[in-house]
């Protein structure tokens, strides 16, 4: 029997094949898969190649089997960083997912992942607010208004109607342009401030989505009843994690392999016993969500490649149905 050609799905096609709502629904489905134990990680869970100077080239590769779909996928990500130029997150860097059929081993698709990854990263962190957000949040605080901030706003608009947004970023001109655009589009005030502390103190829901490697937010700034979402490895000061009423993360095993998280655990600032639960535990009701109006809750995500693979499988199925993408010649052609 002749093999089917591999379907290459370019970036522009992915924009039409994955909506914000679909991404959030898929992320919830995958959290449920994790709770059911039907996700199998690669060993090791992450493979890296960090080339020495003068190359400054970095490869990150991860893989997973999703038994409930079923599909197997490998995510391949490459970027350049010489300390001056950094292509992380830019369209010029390589970011692809290869999908195969785990029942046959046949290749299915190569998906260009820039849009899929960007919206998955925020959808996976915003989704837990269904269970962990304050009642009727009025003020959204955005620390960082780049791609992460814009995508968070897209996800949040499917869930809440805010009365005001408070934001900050490194450059005043950038945040002022963001405020003008979104104030006009949303019909609510979008206020810019100079400091992160001002954003966090004002927010009912605060989100840190910067590229900074430094600690940017502190626990004592989070007001009673607020939920803070950390999208980067050191957005929230590790010294304050234990003071939150609830701390929820996307996965202990994926976080513990990161230097920042493991250092926090090894130093005794936080422990697994102090963790309220993983997001899959909240989604499935194994642990409760918000239980009173005064709880201060921290949501921290590093990212689950299982969700990346599921999102790209969804894109592949829609592309096949709609005849989108480029079908490459099969090996036996």
Major sheet: size, sense and barrel closure?
8 strands, mixed
Q: Helices and strands: which structural class?
A: alpha/beta
Q: Which percent bin holds the helix content?
A: 25-40%
What would you give as the CATH superfamily of the largest domain? Answer: NAD(P)-binding Rossmann-like Domain
Multimeric status of the protein: single chain
Outline type: globular
Assign the CATH architecture of the largest domain. 3-Layer(aba) Sandwich
Please name the CATH topology of the largest domain.
Answer: Rossmann fold
Total strands: 16
Number of domains: 2
CATH class call of the largest domain = Alpha Beta
Question: In percent, how much strand structure appears in the residues?
Answer: 15-25%
Poorly predicted runs are: none
Please compute the radius of gyration using only Cα atoms.
20 Å
Question: How many alpha or pi helices?
Answer: 11
Q: How do the helices and strands follow one another from N- to C-terminus?
A: EHHEEEEEEHHEHEHEHEEEHHEHEHE
**Average pLDDT reading:** 94
3D architecture notes:
The protein starts with 6 loop residues before the first strand and ends in a 6-residue tail after the last strand. The protein has two domains: 134 residues, ornithine cyclodeaminase, domain 1 (2-Layer Sandwich), CATH 3.30.1780.10; 180 residues, 3-Layer(aba) Sandwich (Rossmann fold), CATH 3.40.50.720. Strands 1, 2, 3, 4, 5, 6, 7 and 16 form an eight-stranded mixed beta sheet that branches. Strands 10-9-8-11-12-15-13-14 form an eight-stranded parallel beta sheet, with helices on both faces. The chain has 333 residues and is α/β, with parallel strands linked by helices.
